[in-house]
Amino acid sequence: MAINWFPGHMAKTKREIKENLKLVDAVIEMRDARIIRSSKNPDIEDICGSKPRIILLNKSDLGEESITRLWIEHLSKENIKVLSVNCNTAQGLKNIKIVLNQLLEEKHNRMKERGISKITDRAMVVGIPNVGKSSLINKLARNKIAKTGDKPGVTKSKQWIKTELGIELMDTPGILWPKLESEETRFNLAFTGAIKDEIMDIEDLALNLIKFLCEYYPDRLTARYKLDKLSEKPWENIEIIARKRGAIISGGGVDYNRVAVLILDEFRGGKLGPISLERP
């Protein structure tokens, strides 16, 4: 079934983005490097139209570098530049100004011809919840101006922030689209924490994550959880992991909720190594 999850503040944010687009020179769209397709809000393209756009593939340390490079080639266009970044370490962030200058070269030339030498560009930061928008702004502003959190929905209102790059950034709350109809998208967003864990069954999430890892990253699973071999049945792998990690209830049964939380937390924290859930 499709998940309907479109809180009132998200509908309001969508309207505000449309209204405020005329105030900025470019849009910085953030996506999660592990789920580059699923973390794309399909409304953003329609809302932004031909406005110059930079797509930041954040949390690059958590995704496979070779697959991220394929995505960069796939998404790059004349009016859209794509960068791999890590907002926690500031890796790649200095390239934002370089790329923005390329996108806005015509505007800068016009201003210089009019005798304006000091140019401040304005950009709007957009993206789904929990993708790292506030972390980006805090890094560029070098202090904790924007609120951050491990849960989606922390930023609630529009903020203007000046940065040392000579760019003023408009922060906006994360927005999802009204219906998450694709099962793959639902799971990928839930795996990475963009959807609150309460929305979906956490044991089902862990089962589907194990299915994916068994197919694409079996060596990571066996190494992380010290498994002799993988079973063809995902539930059996979960039960083995539970017993190895002590996720047991009284009577010797498996505590499925506890082991599900453990597996998801370790995936989200990068304990299984860099993993890309989608290929272009």
TrEMBL record:
As for subcellular location, the record says: Cytoplasm
Q: Does the keyword Cytoplasm apply?
A: yes
* Listed transmembrane segments: none
- Determine the domain of life of the protein's source: Bacteria
Tell me the keywords, alphabetical order. Answer: Cytoplasm, GTP-binding, Nucleotide-binding
- Give the Pfam families listed for this entry: MMR_HSR1
Q: Which residues form a coiled coil?
A: none
Annotated CP-type G domain residues:
11-178
Its family remark reads:
Belongs to the TRAFAC class YlqF/YawG GTPase family. MTG1 subfamily.
Functional description taken from the UniProt entry: Required for a late step of 50S ribosomal subunit assembly. Has GTPase activity.
The protein's name in its UniProt record: Ribosome biogenesis GTPase A
Question: Which gene is transcribed and translated to give this protein?
Answer: ylqF
